[in-house]
Design brief:
CATH class of the largest domain: Alpha Beta
Radius of gyration: 31 Å
Strand content: 15-25%
Order of helices and strands: HEHEEEEEHEHEHEHEHEHEHHHHHH
Shape: elongated
Number of domains: 3
Largest sheet: 6 strands, antiparallel
Bound molecules: adenosine-5'-diphosphate, magnesium ion
Number of strands: 12
C-alpha cells in the first residue's frame, strides 16, 4: 500500500530529525500541502491554546513527486490540490517546539485521490487538528454556496448578468430613476409593505420598441442586485417551451423560497398574456397569486409591445407600480454617445456627420451599423473606418430594414425598429385602436 511506504519514509525522517521523541502516525488532511493554504497561513498564526504555527520546509522525498492538480471553477483555473512532503513547525509557549512530518501523494488505484499521512507527538494532536482546519478553510473559503442567478426557461446563455451599468446608454435621469426605484424598494419599501401587512412585491415594467436596451438594462440591474447580495430569478420565454404560465409559477416558487431579497426578471411579459394565462398573470400582478418573500421581491418585466399591456394592466392601480418607457435615441447627444461607444477605438471626429441620422433609432441599430462598418473596413484591408464606410453601413442597414418591412412589422420582430419615428412620436403605451 502506498500509505505504508509514506509512513515508512516519514518515520525514517522522524528518526533523523527528532530521534528522542515518540510519534504517532495519522491520516492527515490533504489540504495542508495545498499551496493556497501554505501561502495564506502566515508564520506566527495562533492556533489552539498557546500554540502557534511557525512555517514549513519542503522535504526531499523519493517516494512522492511534488505535483499540483488544477481544475476550473467557473471561468477561472484554480489550484485544487498539491502533493508533496513537508515538515511543519509549531511552537507552544513555555514548551518545546515540535514539528510534524507530513507527506501527501496521489493514489491511482481506482480513483485519483490525494492521500496524506502525518507523524507527530501524540500530545499535539489538538494543535495539528487546528492547523488542518485552518488549511481547509484557506483552500475552501466560505464560498457563497447559494446560487445568485436562477434561470427559468433556457440556459445560462440566455442571460448574462455581467453588463456594466455605465455601458447602458440611455438618458441619465431615466437610469437614475430606475436605479433609485430598485434601491428605495429594497432599503425602505420592504419594511413599509411589511408594516402594512402586505407581501413586499413591487412591479416595474420596461416598455419600448425592440433593440432599445431593455434586456441589457435588466442584465445591468441584475449585476447590481447580485452585488447587493440579492438573488436574481430570470424567466425567459424564448426557449422551446415558450411563454407558459408554468414558468412564471416556477419563478414565483423560487422567489418565495429564496431567503434573500429577489430581483425577478420576466422578459416579454406580453407573451404570457394570452388565453387562460392572462387571467393568471393578472392574479399575480394583483397579489392574489403573488409571491410572499418577506425580504422583498422586485419584478422587472419587459415588453416590446406595450399596446398588449392594455389599460387593464397599465391603468389599473396596483397592477404595475411603474412603467418606464425605454426610448429610442432621443437626440444628437444621445446618438453621439452611442456611436462613440460602439465605434470604440475606431471613432473619428468625422463620424459626427452621421449622428443626426441615428436619432429615432434604437441602440441596436447603432451597434449593428458600427460593427458592419468595421467589418467593411476589415474586408478592404483597411485599418480605419472612414466616414464613407460608416455611411455605407448605415444606408445598407436601413435598406435591409425597409425591404424586410413586412417581416419586421409582424408580431415578433427581431431587434431592429422600422417604424421608430412613428412609435417615438406617440406614447408606446397608447392602446392600439
Ligand atoms: N441603450 C443602449 N445602450 C447600449 N447598447 C444598446 C442599447 N440599446 C441596445 N443596445 C445594443 O443592442 C443590443 C440589443 O439590445 P437589447 O437589450 O436586446 O434590446 P431590447 O431588449 O430592448 O430589445 C444590446 O445587447 C446592445 O448591444
Ligand atoms: Mg429584449
Amino acid at each position: 500500500m502506498q500509505y505504508e511506504r509514506l509512513v515508512k519514509w516519514a518515520s525514517e525522517i522522524w528518526e533523523e530529525r527528532c530521534p528522542d521523541r515518540e510519534y504517532v502516525a495519522i491520516w492527515a488532511s490533504a489540504e495542508c500541502s495545498n499551496k493556497i493554504a501554505q501561502n495564506q497561513i502566515k508564520v506566527g498564526r495562533k492556533l489552539r491554546g498557546k500554540a502557534r504555527y511557525q512555517g514549513y520546509e519542503l522535504l526531499d522525498c523519493d517516494v512522492v513527486v511534488p505535483i499540483s492538480d488544477y481544475g476550473s471553477r467557473g471561468k477561472s483555473t484554480v489550484l485544487m490540490s498539491s502533493a508533496g512532503a513537508y515538515t511543519f513547525h509549531f511552537s507552544v509557549e513555555d514548551e518545546e517546539p515540535f514539528e510534524v512530518i507530513y507527506v501527501s501523494s496521489y493514489f491511482d488505484d481506482d480513483v485519483q485521490d490525494l492521500t496524506a499521512i502525518a507523524l507527530l507527538p501524540e500530545d499535539k494532536l489538538d494543535t495539528w487538528a487546528a492547523f488542518e482546519f485552518a488549511c481547509a478553510r484557506a483552500v475552501r473559503p466560505r464560498i457563497r454556496r447559494r446560487r445568485d442567478v436562477y434561470i427559468i426557461g433556457g440556459t445560462d446563455a440566455f442571460f448574462d448578468p455581467t453588463v456594466e451599468w455605465s455601458d447602458v446608454i440611455l438618458p441619465s435621469d431615466l437610469k437614475e430613476e430606475l436605479l433609485e426605484d430598485m434601491e428605495a424598494f429594497f432599503t425602505k419599501g420592504v419594511d413599509i409593505y411589511r408594516q402594512l401587512k402586505l407581501a413586499p412585491f413591487r412591479k416595474l415594467l420596461l416598455a419600448g420598441v425592440p433593440g432599445t436596451g431593455k434586456t441589457m438594462l435588466c442584465a445591468a440591474m441584475a449585476k447590481l442586485a447580485i452585488e447587493q447580495k440579492r438573488i436574481v430569478v430570470y424567466v425567459s420565454g424564448s426557449d422551446r417551451d415558450g411563454a407558459s404560465f408554468e414558468k412564471i409559477q416556477r419563478a414565483l416558487q423560487a422567489v418565495t423560497a429564496a431567503h434573500y431579497p429577489v430581483l425577478l426578471i420576466v422578459e416579454e411579459l406580453d407573451a404570457y398574456l394570452h388565453d387562460d394565462d392572462k387571467a393568471r398573470v393578472l392574479n399575480v400582478l394583483d397579489g392574489v397569486e403573488s409571491p410572499n418573500n418577506p425580504q422583498g421581491a422586485l419584478l422587472l418585466a419587459t415588453t416590446n409591445y406595450p399596446e398588449v399591456i392594455d389599460e387593464r394592466i397599465a391603468k389599473r392601480p396596483g397592477r404595475l407600480d411603474r412603467i418606464f418607457v425605454i426610448p429610442t435615441i432621443q437626440d444628437d447627444h444621445h446618438a453621439e454617445q452611442m456611436l462613440r461607444h460602439y465605434m470604440a477605438d475606431q471613432w473619428k471626429e468625422e463620424h459626427l456627420d452621421v449622428v443626426s441620422q441615428l436619432v429615432g433609432q434604437p441602440g441596436a441599430f447603432v451597434r449593428e451599423s458600427a460593427l458592419h462598418a468595421r467589418m467593411l473596413a476589415a474586408h478592404s484591408h483597411s485599418t480605419e473606418v472612414t466616414l464613407e464606410l460608416l455611411q455605407q453601413s448605415i444606408d445598407s442597414l436601413l435598406r435591409q430594414i425597409r425591404s424586410s418591412g413586412d417581416f419586421m412589422s409582424q408580431r415578433r420582430p427581431i431587434g431592429l425598429n422600422t417604424a421608430s419615428k412613428k412609435s417615438n412620436s406617440r406614447s408606446p403605451l397608447m392602446p392600439r385602436r
